[in-house]
Every structure is written in C-alpha cells, then in structure tokens.
Specification:
By secondary structure, the protein is mostly beta strands. It contains no helices and 17 strands.
C-alpha cells in the first residue's frame, strides 16, 4: 500500500487512546454572590462537567479556588479526553451551600497535532463533517475511523460521504480550493478536484499540515 502513515498522524494515539481533545484551561469565574467556600481548592463535581462526545473519553478533573466572595479560578488537574467540542463546566459557590452558579468558558487542548481529520459515516447516514479521528490505517484507501456514532472501517471517496462505510479527506491548495484525497501515503496525496484548479485531476501531490503552495497541498489536521 505504499509507504504507510506514521502513527502520530492518527488522533487515537494523541489523547489517552481515544482521540479528540482534553481541557487545556477554564476561564476565571466571576459573578457569584452569597457564596461560601472551603478554605482551599475544591474539586468540581463530575456531575457538573458534561461528558466527552467520543465513546471511551474521560471527564477532566478540575479544582476551584476562591479569590473573593464572588470570584475564583479553575485549575486543570487532569485534562480528560474524547472531546470534539468544549464541555460545559458549572461552578457552584460551594459543594454543599449557596445557590449561585457560573459557567465559565472552557478551552480544549488542541494537542491532537499532526493528526489527520476526516469526514465520515460509521453508522446510519449522518455525515460527520468535523471532529472525526482516524484510528488505524487499513490500506492506502481504507481506515478505521471514530465518529460520535462509533467506530468503523471506511473507504476514501472522491466526494462527500453519504452512507455508512464511506469517508473523505478534503485537501486544499494555496487559494483554499478543495480536493478529495483518493489515496494517501507518507509523502503523496492523490487528488480529485472539488473546487480547486491548481492541481490537475488525479495528480499525486506532496502534502503538509502547514501552508499549501503551488506544489504542496494541505491536509486537514486537528
């Protein structure tokens, strides 16, 4: 199948073996009122953190430290895994007292660097257009992928996937024109034109996660 892709290109090897991302940071909390706090940082209840979207992911461990009667900071003890979008975290004034709550902004890790992302359908007919991790390369045209619906072996298609078992990797050129990748090896991507006109139909083009040029296409990464 040509030179296979390195494992670092697959999301499943980057974050706790399930793909997706963890929590990098949580914004400072303001606007609490009438609250009482423990003397030191306390752990935010798991029930107050929404679950990861990818099966097998874990919730982060977060602690809250008060800086005043109405505000505080949240520290990330462990990032968790399996998130394709940021969880909602609810901070309460204390573990057992008070009625005020806050839902600060959460930032994901973006540590799935050098991991190819794809469109794909593993179950039913829902086209998962974002947040899909490649778990394993089966051949140059077939991959085991993880979507929010589950895991399945899918074949590359030269158009948007429409049924279970289909996937697409959409490359771009320097003008943001698009191409469907029909074969991918360590060094080259074979392309079918979408909106792009820089590369000819069926061209095998070197690829990068960085900036596309006249001679190098860009493959999407997480």
């Amino acid at each position: 199948m040509g030179r296979p892709l390195a494992k670092r290109f697959f999301g499943s090897t980057n974050t706790a073996g399930v793909g997706g991302e963890g929590v990098a940071s949580v914004a400072a909390v303001t606007g609490l009122s009438g609250m009482t706090f423990p003397a030191g940082p306390f752990t935010i209840l798991a029930a107050d953190i929404t679950a990861p979207q990818i099966a097998g992911g874990t919730k982060p461990v977060l602690t809250f430290s008060a800086t005043s009667a109405t505000a505080g900071t949240v520290a990330v003890v462990s990032a968790g895994s399996g998130y394709t979008s940021a969880p909602t975290v609810t901070v309460r004034g204390s573990l057992s007292a008070g009625s005020g709550t806050a839902t600060p902004t959460v930032t994901l890790t973006s540590t799935v660097g050098d991991a190819i992302v794809c469109q794909g359908i593993t179950v039913g007919s829902t086209n998962r257009t974002a947040g899909n991790d490649i778990i394993k390369q089966v051949s140059t045209r077939r991959y085991s992928i993880q979507t929010q619906d589950g895991t399945a072996i899918c074949a590359l298609k030269a158009s948007a996937p429409t049924v279970a078992g289909e996937m697409a990797i959409v490359a771009t050129d320097a003008s943001s024109g698009t191409y469907y990748v029909t074969k991918l090896t360590k060094n080259l991507a074979t392309l079918t034109r979408g909106t792009g006109t820089v590369y000819v139909e069926g061209a095998s083009v070197p690829w990068t996660f960085g900036t596309a040029t006249a001679a190098i296409c860009k493959i999407p990464s997480a």
